[in-house]
Amino acid sequence: MSTVTLSIDNKQVDAELNSTLLSVFKEHDILVNQICGGQGMCASCHFFVVGGGEALTPPTKQEQLTLQFTTIERPGARLACQTRIIGDGVVLELPLGTFIESEQDLEREIGKKATQTLIHPMTGEVLVEAGKLIMRSALEKMKQASSKFAASLSGK
Fold it and tell me: Whole-angstrom Cα distance, residue 124 to residue 61?
């Protein structure tokens, strides 16, 4: 198989042509969530294309649908589970922060300072900035974002 080189957060890695970026992340021990199991139903494996976007497959219909319901404001967002490498020269960045996997996880952290930016697992919305106090309002924000995301998927 042919391999190409891509840049992930300024680190050069080799990848096989036609592999998904999610598999490349796993192969190189790059931590990324896949809360929906790699089905393109959440935004937890999103990344940002900085350059070489033409060396990636176009967004799938599922990817487009999912990204349209996120609150990711930075341009160039793609889903690693839906994106395949078809050429050389891809430059990408991962989101800064960590995804909160459940409301219970966030609730346990209330009253503490966030050591990293905390991000909603499905929408990519920033719940708490790094260094800020985690308050009950962040939990409410997470619940609202989850409800809105679920409603958007069901067409309501």
Answer: 19
**pTM, 2 dp:** 0.75
Choose the CATH number for 3-93 among 1.10.3720.10, 3.30.70.1350, 3.40.50.1100, 3.10.20.30: 3.10.20.30
Residue 131 pLDDT exceeds 60: yes
109: number of Cβ within 10 Å: 16
Instruction: With H, G, I as helix, E, B as strand and everything else as coil, classify residue 29.
Output: coil
- Tell me how long the chain is: 156
Alpha-carbon gap, residue 139 to 123, rounded angstroms: 14
Could you give the C-alpha distances from 90 to 9, 73, 104, in angstroms and in order?
A: 11, 21, 37
Give the model's pLDDT for residue 150.
75
- The pair phi, psi for residue 89, each rounded to 5°, is 95, 20
State residue 151's pLDDT score.
Answer: 77
pLDDT of residue 63: 93
Average pLDDT for the chain = 88
